[in-house]
Every structure is written in structure tokens, then in C-alpha cells.
Amino acid sequence: MNRSKSSDDPILFQCGFLLVDNEEVTTHQMLVGASGAGKTTLIRLFLQDVVPAIAKEPDWRMLITNPKGDALSTLHGIQPSGLRIVTMDPFDDRGVAWDMCADVTEPRTALQLAYTLLPKRNESQPFFSDAARHIIYGVLLSFLHRKIQWTFADLLRALQGVKTIKRVLAASKYSRNIIDQYFYDKRLISNIVSTIAANLLPFGPVAACWESATERISLRDWVRGNFVIVLGNSDESREAVEVINQCMVRRAIELLLAMPDSFTRRSFFVFDEVAECGKLPMLESLMKRGRSKGASVTLAFQSIAGLRNPTMYGPHGTAEILGQVQHKVIGRLECPETAKWASELFGEQEIKQTTKSTSRTYAEKSSRSESTTEHFVTRAAVLPSEFMDLEPCCVSSGLSAFYLSAAYGAFQSTMDGPELFEEMLVPRSESVQDFIPRSVQSQFLEPWSRKRRIHFAPEPKLKRDDRQRAPEPQQQASILSALDEL
């Protein structure tokens, strides 16, 4: 474990009114609030400290989601030069392609890719989905064994049609046995290939755009490098981009957790609107085991219900993930369930309650008596209604939130609006566009050339038993004598 320090100066990161130091930042941050509560503003303040620090530290890096589509101008406004910031958005003309071939180098990672591209679902008849994953895995095995340099587009092309798949599988001794398991019946293999085609259909434009990219990077480069990755976001191709982002996040986490412990390494993961990202694989493992590897995770979301959804992390998984977060900022809420959950985070307190009672008697001589009693009652430290009564974040009302941190305790505070928006926030870059679309033509997946088709899916060599056998010498002699007689 590396115990050396790169600098004697403390590095502090602003999270609203919380100042989190370099060691505490690996205990993770959480920003919760309804739309307009100020989560994006708090993330911008956090990035204003993180991004310049990454530029100075060679073993620091960041991966950030881009749900609102303004991450590039925000990041370039903070750090206009000196730090590499790349977008992995396949539909952006500047988008850098993911070098899958460099990251999927073993059968186990190939198997995981097959399951991520075609995730398990609650199906009454899972046979065809399972068989489809098996064939995807077999195609990847064939590529790995033959040491072929492939792209995501090549993988999709290799899975187009029974004949092509069979040729790819037959090209390696490690995938050849799959042919015997599924290709003996034309109707069976046709149904399996249809399942593959239907599930991989959304990825065609993504793979085509990445093939037209001028640069490729691998996540192995990222975990050892010093740059920022901005994940893609597309409402028009949401399902495909969401799954591809999940693939990249999973591989980044796997590579990071496989690295040795370090006190100086920092890998920042910023998941804004985390419920919009779909279920991120291995997020729980990252939260639990990433600290010793230098991982710092920042989660922002609007409602606890979105995370507790069974299709996401479920109640137990959500509790496991959020239970690892030590720095919590909760702004204005609109969801009663989320407000109740937030109130429970702050716990209960004992307060002294005074009760006055007055009694009167009306007789010949009226009388009046008063008594005062004091007793302690237990109530929520912060009522659910207090979260829902906070003002929206704006210049006039500022940014109000409740804070809960192991280092600072629990408190409520409001950041001054004019100071926050006019002095503290760094303006977004006006010279960097957030999105430059690729040409429509780049979304069409071109077929292989004849040369590349032969390279990836060579025609199978006939087995010895399948060839026309050459006649034995004695047979040759008898044939020649018969010809002479004729």
C-alpha cells in the first residue's frame, strides 16, 4: 500500500456548507432534492474543487454522467486547459469510442459482457435468452482465442445471421462445440438468432457511430490515467446508451477494485440523477470496497422511491448503498415517502414539553386554579414537513438544505442567493458546445468488406471425413487397368 503523500497542503472539496477533505471524500457524498432544490448547483460547487485538483494530481481521474446535457461546458468552464476531458457520447461528433477489445481480454469478462448486453429478466421461458447469451459469449471467445482486434460494430456484424455466426464459432476450438448444441435444428437456431437480433437491435446506431470516431480509449487507460470521462446521454436512443453506460461503469469498477490499495489514488464517480442511469452494476461493491482503492462516489437523486424500485436496487440494496454515505445534503423535497426517509436519517430528540391546565368552579364562590406540568417527549429531530417547506433554489431565496455529516453533525443552513450565483459559481464555457451531432449517415452500420468478412468469419475447412477421399494405391492400379481396357 502506497503511504506517500503528493502534497503537504490539504485539499478541500465544497459540498454546500460542508468542506470535505481529501481523506473524507472517499466516504462518499449524497445530494437529495426535488427538481429545483439545487442539486446541480451543489454538484457544480463540488466540481469546482475536484476538477482543478485532478489536473494537478497524476493519479486522479473522474467519470461523470451527463443527464442534463451540460457537463462539457460546465467542466471546460472550470478547467479550460491542462486537463483532458473526453465525451463517450456515441452521437456527439467529438465522441471517443470505447475500445472494448482492450477491456474484454479474458473469457470471464467476455461472459460478463454477454450478460450485460442481454441482461437477465423475469421470463417464463428463459431458454432462448440463455442460448443467445451463450452464442454471444462463444463469438467473443472466438475473437479472443484468435487474437483478433475487434470493435463493437464487428461484434454486432458477427451476430448477424445463422451462417455468419456458425463460421465465427467454427473458427476456434473453444467455441466450436456450441455449434453442436444449437445448430442441429434449423427452427431452433433460427429462434435463437432472432432473440439475439431483437435484443441487440438498439445498439446498431451506437456501434456505427463509434466506428466513425477518430479516437478510441479503454477503461484500462482511465483507471491508470489522468483525465475525465463524460458518459453519453440520449433521450432518442435511451435504452442503448443506458446499457452501454452500464457496461462501461461496470468495467471501470471491476478494474478499479482489482488494483492495489492506495492512499494517494483518487477515482471520482459522479452520478447525477442516479435513478435515471438505470441499475448500475456493482455500485454496491464500489460503495463498500472502493474506499481503500481511492474511490469517491457522489450520488444525486430526487426520490428514494426511484432507487427502491424492484427493477433498480430494491429496498435492501438501496439501504446497503446509501448506508455507506457519510456526507448527506438534503434539500427541498416533494415526495412524502422521501421526506419520511430523510426525517428518519436525522433520528429523534428529547424535548421538554410544558403543559398548563386551568380549572374553574362556579358556585356561590367561584374559584380558579392553574397547574403546570413538565415532561420529556420524543419527537423527530427534523419533521418530514420541514423538508417539504424549504424554498426552491433561486437567486432571491438562495439554497436551503439540511446537512448530516460524521465530521460536522446535523444542521440546517441557507446559502445566500446573490453570493452563490453571482460570485461562487464559475460560469459555463461559452466556447465549448455541449453537443455537436454526428452526421445521420454515421448511424448506419456498414457491412464487412469481403476481406474483413473472411478475417472474422472464415469459411470452415472441411473435415477429413467430409472430403472426397483419395483412392488407395491398389485402387489406383485397378482404375488405371480398367481405363486401359476401355
Automatic annotation (TrEMBL):
Membrane topology, from the record: Multi-pass membrane protein
Ranges of residues in domain Type IV secretion system coupling protein TraD DNA-binding: 23-391
Keywords from the UniProt entry: Cell membrane, Membrane, Transmembrane, Transmembrane helix
Keyword Cell membrane among record annotations: yes
Segments crossing the lipid bilayer: none
Region annotation (Disordered) ranges: 456-486
Record has Cell membrane as a keyword: yes
Main subcellular localisation: membrane
Compositional bias segments (type: Basic and acidic residues): 456-470
Domain of life: Bacteria
GO CC annotations, alphabetized: plasma membrane
UniProt-listed InterPro entries: P-loop_NTPase (IPR027417), T4SS-coupling_protein (IPR051539), T4SS_TraD_DNA-bd (IPR019476)
Subcellular location: Cell membrane
Name of the protein in its database record: Coupling protein TraD
Organism name: Crateriforma conspicua
